[in-house]
Predict the structure.
Amino acid sequence: MATPPDVLPAPATLTKPPGPPPDTAPDAAIAGARTVPRRRPGQWVSAAVALLAFAMVVNSLARNKAFQWDVVADWFTATSVLNGLTLTLWLTAVTLGLGFVLGTLLATMRLSANPVLRTLSWIYIWIFRSTPALVQLLLFFNIGALYPTLGLGIPFGPEFLTVRTVNLFGPTLTAVVGLTLLEAAYAAEVVRGGILSVDRGQLEAAAALGLGRWRVLRRIVVPQAMRSIVPTAGNMLIGALKGTSIISVLAVSDLLYSVQLVYLQTYQVIPMLMVATIWYIVITTVLSIGQYYVERYYAKGATREGLPPTPLQRARAAYRRLRATAAAEVTAK
């Protein structure tokens, strides 16, 4: 006879036999363990060797009497040296500014759909990048042997204005023209590379939105191209500053030529060269700092994490932490 379901015995529930609780001590020990960085003895050895070499260099500079640091201090702010420094800075600003203006025009020609403009721009860049700067300056300085006169008029016809090149190209103008044409060749490639670094998809998206060419250039192309242009342009600026020393062969009174005039009279060659060296280091350092902040300005929005703090911001943060720690100690007492 079948037993009805309501009188069947309930099934036995499987239960875990009682026992000691699980041992959580190992997990707790792991969680409370202190992380010890991996020891790298090679880094300490290399750092010690580098510091030792740096200390030896500093010691040789400080204790070598041949440098004559007292003479360096006397001539560092001399009027002749400062006049040469002023001319060097002026020449750097003029040649690099005009060079980038001409270089931008050449870069536009290189990117043009016109094959004649592309070819002429390429030939210009090829010639001026292939010849040494000193050779170019000497050719411009002796241009009177090639063209005694320069005229303005109708080709194969009468000339309305004629100028003798001997009276036109002096040492300073030769330096400006020669260095400007040289910097323009390099600036053209810098600008062209910056423009080509902009993604074509963004230009197509701007065209789809109906933005005008000038607005696309100002809002899309230039801000992104500057991220590639600024670092190289900063190196060009520093190179142009140091490259102006080559005009000393034309007897232009720049920084190097000014100190050369002094040591030719006083025979203090090493200290006067150190004066020029220190001034070049000071100006280059200032330009490098300016380049760093210009790069940060154009790098806004390049990464999602944001820009790293500047050295000044790090110093302010460290100062605030020190003040907070000092205030906490005073409160605890």
Q: What stands out?
A: The chain is about 70% helix and 5% strand. The first helix runs from residue 25 to 31.
